[in-house]
Prior knowledge:
Blueprint: H1 3-39, H2 48-77, H3 81-87, E1 91-92, H4 100-116, E2 122-126, E3 134-137, E4 145-149, H5 150-155, H6 158-173, H7 176-210, H8 216-266, H9 269-281, H10 315-322, H11 328-354, H12 378-384, H13 394-405, H14 411-424, H15 427-440, H16 448-456, H17 464-478, H18 486-504, H19 518-530, H20 536-550, H21 564-575, H22 580-595, H23 602-614, H24 632-635
Parallel strand pairs: 2-4
Antiparallel strand pairs: 1-2, 3-4
Amino acid sequence: MDFFARQEAARRTTQVLRVIFPICVLVVTAAITCLTYVVCGGANPHTSDVAAVPATLAALITLTIVFGASLYKTLELRAGGSAVARSMGGVRVERTTDDPRLQRLLNVVHEMAIAAAVPTPELYVLESEDGINTLVAGNTAADAAIIVTRGVVTLLSRDELQAVIGHEFSHIVNGDMRLNSRLLGWVYGLLIVAVAMRMFLGQFTRIVQRAENFGLFLMMILIVFIVFAFLVMGIGYIGVFFARILQAAVSRQRERLADASALQFTRNPEGLRSALLKIAGTDRGSRLRTPHAEEAAHMLFAAGSFRLFGTHPPLLQRLCSIGPRISNQEMAAQAVAAIERFEKESAREAEAERSPRPHPAPGIFFDRASAAIGAGAALAARASMPAPPPSASPAQDSIARVLALLRSAQPDVAGRQDAILARSFDAKFVEQVSAQVRLVSGLAPALRLPATQREIASLRNLTTRRQRELRALVHQLAMADRRIDVFECCLALLLESLLRDLIEGGEPHGSGSLLRSANAVHRLLAIVTGHGHPNDAGARAAYAAGVAAVLPHDVREYAPVEDWPNVLSDSLRELDQLRASAKRPLIEALRVCATQDGRLTVEEADLLRTVCAVLHCPLPPMSGLSAGSAAIDAIA
């Protein structure tokens, strides 16, 4: 199942959950209402009218508690993945870390982000957890955070890290995080009913234990209340029981798909297989000590605790799905072998570290190709990007680097840009931007946009007001020469998309159709075609090929688009509301347009990367291009 099919499956699953969850709530509410009615004398014809009042009140209180708790938990999770990570005790990993294992993990996260064309997630480590487990939290790719245990950092090799991080990126790209947050909020709403009754039950029990001077009648009333609270607590837990059955079923299916996506990302089944074997072969396995392990169970890479209804397929089943079928005994033997190999490799690495050797160039990484999303070509992109120098303010440096990438090589335009910066910042920051200009000046044009995507991820930590001010400043700097080129337009669109996702946090796809948005489709194809084919004949041929791939019954003549930056922005905003299945032929048509002549220009690569990011779609495969294509690293 590919990305677009998975998005449609996710949409259907969400719609089913929106029906099933209210049914669960109504059943729980009805049971509590009936119980209250009976306890208050509803079975007696003389008191049935009186009993209806507390029964109605119980129904209202139950609904208020369930939906209020669900809303509270959902709003809590809307704070983003970093808030979830901090609540679990995660420690943020900074770019400037001097821990070589953490730096290796950061490199893997960066390369996957470049390849998937999504903002780089924040990275957190659960330092007190020595089991092997990870999770990704957040509402959108813009506010995602990857959380790993210390066991992941210390026990996994680079290939295994790539497989595990690729698994988590699948959840980011495919929108699983939003569904996970909803599941967590809905189950929490039902759970709070049982928890509240358990608290009341404890209070009533303590009152009865101290009630030495209470009369028989008062004692009987207290006992009735205790029995009532016990029954309500049982009803609440029954509701949670069925909700968690549903939660586990949904989670198991999505974990299987995430494993498949990890293989597509890395093209290395052995990496994922070895990581799973290490979980089977270590004493701690994937277990977590944190009290949050239970509520986050469906968000983890592997089971964090024992559950009656597992949120993940058994390890043996996952291993058999990515390799030859084996038995439990064979899995145990292979797990021991995997641990022994790791211990030998660790000993060799320790010996090598004691030997004098030249330090590798910063930023060189990625050993495995991926035709699916172009992760193999991320090697050139990430290795060519200058390593940021240590800084006490990484977010401020990221702003400076984004602005430095817009700096013009023409002295008169650069002077106007400096004047614009001086009106918004002090002289010290203007000098900081100038220093960053010197740092990024050697960056190849094909790598500027991937570098920008790496930097703008840090802007998620700014205030909303500061983000909007930066967006306006980017536009002013881009227009300093009274024109806007493709890179400047793409940077502004990426920044706009990131901020929109952070502020609005809406659904990544809508319900629109290609036919209703045909005009926007034609405009987008014409813009991409016009920037990739300098002659009119080539542009017409590429445009016709793209139209045939997406709207074969709506053929139009190619015509250059006037005021294309504004038209592109408006078209993408409309096309982002397409349903996921409608975006599939659109992305394919763009790929056809860009590669119809067998080459990929920098402008085409930047536009494709930007369109996919704004439309919340993965980059298409770009195999089959000529070897001399200068921009292949930019798109992949």
